[in-house]
From TrEMBL:
This is DNA 3'-5' helicase. ATP binds at residues 25-32. The keyword Cytoplasm does not apply. Its EC number is 5.6.2.4. Belongs to the helicase family. UvrD subfamily. InterPro entries: DExx_box_DNA_helicase_dom_sf, DNA_helicase_UvrD-like_C, DNA_helicase_UvrD/REP, P-loop_NTPase, UvrD-like_ATP-bd. Keywords: ATP-binding, Helicase, Hydrolase, Isomerase, Nucleotide-binding. It holds the Pfam family UvrD_C. It comes from Parabacteroides chartae. PROSITE patterns: UVRD_HELICASE_ATP_BIND (PS51198). Signal peptide: none annotated.
Length: 611
DNA sequence: GAAGGCCCGCTTTTT
DNA sequence: GCGGGCCTTC
């Protein structure tokens, strides 16, 4: 698309000067290109910096790559990152102003937060009794619900003085207890990143002013996904004199409502607070006619077909069972790969040009099984995630790294002791004395102890450990050595990714970068893409199979029960799914589904699909 | 208060 | 298809 001329409307947006603007850009309308070209144009004219905020690491990587490909010095002037990454960056620099003398650790693992909320419940007398009367499963449900309550307070930016009006007393106590535990561990969670940054900016207007001076222009991609905390952070970054803010978004693609986001921030608050000039980009440069007509049946007038030449293929197919559905998809894929060249798709068909999408990951399991059997290459598109370690040594390293960087982190210290089956030890120095000299665990802890805080010898230490493993200089069984080797390699790769993008390095900031998913190597594996609709957002593929389109699966049965906004979000989700396809789209659904407990349930076509 | 019967809900999406 | 909650009954 980069070599195609910009349309008149796109040019208008790109060349828009100072002031606020709202660009309503439908799927495939070239919004990322408009965004990057405008950033590029402004970067040349301003002496100050530009802030470009995205929602996913994937999107920010894409923008960075595009900017670098236009001009590789651009990134010196432009900060591109997710809301969370930006807030982390602010707190790293100025957290001390709100009491974080040492860099807090970002606890992103749900398991960690579950343990902490469990303790918070135990510390809340009025809740403890109720909690203890529950069974395992209910306790987990209760913990998740509690985490959600805590999350909501922060997402909705409810300050302490307003809590009593909105939340009941027990929940307030729980919230305070959770906060106390987190702070005793010098830890913060995802919501804190935004909430604390907002608090920092309102309580230290000089610091906020610094950022306002620093960033002359602000861009927000996927603005329909903003939640209150994010919008408030953004507002504190602008002032009446300086509000050069560009929002790009599409209300029809709002699918993160469960996370507190609402397109109202873009459509109502932004318009009211910033009075932006509104642009509409609705020409679709991505998909073929049949696909867009189908999308327009799901959300009327969502895309204009004016610029579209190719017909493409869009088919809806119904099957007796999930098994038949799966087999058809596999056969169709095999056929397309055999045919190599098909109408309206230039070049040869290969597995990389095919994606299989579904509402949730469980729907993809039978397909995965079958792809494996047929030896067809595939990979799961994942959201950028942290370390995935499978060896004991890898987990020990990861825990010890956290303990080393944060002496207050008793949570991970106790997990570390559990793994090593040790008791009554409080420091890494003491731990190593209790381990057998030359064992892989000993060497792992030793490596951690040898690491310098600024990370300058990180690569060296890991490489030494790797070579000890290769040369079998360590005591451990064959299997552990084998997986440990690949784990430490993975850790090294995360470090290399971190090193590439960070100048001011330290072990703690490395750990936080991992938690925020910034060190994830985006070199996607080869093969057919398997993905949920949410993870596929902002991406595209020539041939898309959208499977499991039976009612109750897509829309999800819980959304049907709740109705209203939830159903609107399901519809948007379907619109996102359909518009991922560039040339061919196959929509399939089964008329029966075997439930996890063995019952065969009758199914009908999704109510969201065209009649 | 124990035993027996009926009903309900099982796996969402992510920084 | 199964475990658990909740209701009825003695």
């Amino acid at each position: 698309m980069n070599n195609i001329m910009l349309s008149e409307k796109q040019k208008e947006v790109v060349s828009f000067g100072k002031g606020s603007l709202l660009v309503k850009a439908s799927a495939g309308s070239g919004k990322t290109r408009v965004l990057t070209e405008r950033i590029c144009m402004l970067a040349k004219s301003t002496k100050r910096r530009i802030l470009a905020i995205t929602f996913s690491n994937r999107a920010s990587e894409e923008i960075k790559n595009r900017l670098a490909s236009i001009d590789d010095t651009l990134l010196e002037k432009v900060y591109v990152g997710t809301f969370h990454a930006f807030c982390n960056y602010v707190l790293e620099k100025h957290g001390a102003a709100i009491g974080y003398k040492e860099l807090p650790h970002v606890f992103s693992e749900v398991e960690d937060r579950m343990r902490i909320v469990e303790k918070a419940i135990a510390d809340t007398p009025s809740l403890r009794h109720l909690y203890e009367s529950k069974n395992e499963k209910q306790r987990n449900q209760y913990k998740s619900k509690s985490l959600d309550v805590i999350s909501t307070i922060k997402r909705e930016v409810i300050l302490d003085e307003d809590l009593t009006r909105k939340i009941n007393d027990d929940e307030i106590l729980l919230y305070y207890n959770y906060r106390e535990i987190m702070s005793s561990l010098n830890a913060i969670d995802f919501d804190d990143l935004l909430f604390l940054t907002y608090k920092l900016f309102i309580s230290n207007t000089n610091i906020a002013a610094l950022y306002r001076r620093n960033f002359e222009y602000i861009f927000v991609d996927e603005a329909q996904d903003l939640n209150r905390a994010q919008y408030m952070v953004l507002r504190s970054l602008t002032s009446d004199e300086n509000k050069n803010v560009m929002f790009v978004g599409d209300s029809n693609q709002s699918i993160y409502g469960f996370n507190g986001s609402s397109s109202d921030f873009m459509n109502l608050d932004f318009i009211q607070d910033y009075n932006p000039k509104v642009f509409v980009l609705n020409e679709n440069y991505r998909s073929t006619k049949t696909i867009l007509k189908y999308a327009n049946q799901i959300i009327p007038n969502s895309s204009s077909l004016d610029e579209v030449v190719l017909e493409g293929v869009t088919k809806e197919l119904c099957f007796e069972s999930v098994e038949k559905e799966t087999l058809w998809v596999i056969d169709k894929i095999k056929l397309l790969l055999q045919q190599k060249k098909v109408k309206d798709i230039e070049g040869e068909i290969c597995t990389e040009r095919i994606a299989i999408l579904a509402r949730n990951k469980y729907v993809l399991l039978p397909i995965e099984e079958r792809l494996k059997k047929e030896n067809l290459p595939y990979y799961y598109k994942s959201s950028s995630k942290g370390l995935e370690l499978s060896s004991l040594s890898g987990s020990i390293f990861n825990l010890a790294l956290q303990v080393k960087g944060n002496s207050k982190d008793r949570l991970h210290l106790s997990q570390l002791l559990n793994l090593l089956k040790l008791k009554n030890v409080v420091s890494l120095d003491d731990i190593i004395k209790r381990l057998e000299n030359g064992s892989i665990y000993f060497e792992t802890i030793l490596t951690i102890l040898n690491l310098k805080e600024d990370g300058s010898n990180f690569k060296l230490c890991i490489r030494q450990l790797l070579s000890k493993i290769t040369n079998k200089l360590l005591h451990a069984d064959e299997n552990e050595l084998h997986i440990a080797y690949s784990d430490f390699n993975e850790i090294l790769n995360h470090w290399l990714n971190y090193e590439k993008r960070t100048l001011d390095r330290s072990l703690i900031s490395f750990r936080n970068a991992i938690a925020l998913g910034q060190t994830f190597a985006n070199n996607e594996d080869k093969g057919i893409t398997l993905s949920t609709v949410h993870t596929m957002k902002g991406q595209e593929n020539d041939i898309v199979f959208l499977i499991g389109m039976d009612d109750m699966t897509f829309p999800d049965y819980r959304a049907i029960e709740k109705g209203g906004v939830e159903m609107q979000q399901e519809k948007n989700n379907l619109y996102v799914a359909v518009t991922r396809a560039k040339r061919y789209l196959f929509v399939t659904y089964p008329l029966s589904r075997i439930m996890p407990w063995g019952e065969v349930k009758k199914r009908v076509k999704s109510r969201l699909l065209p009649k």
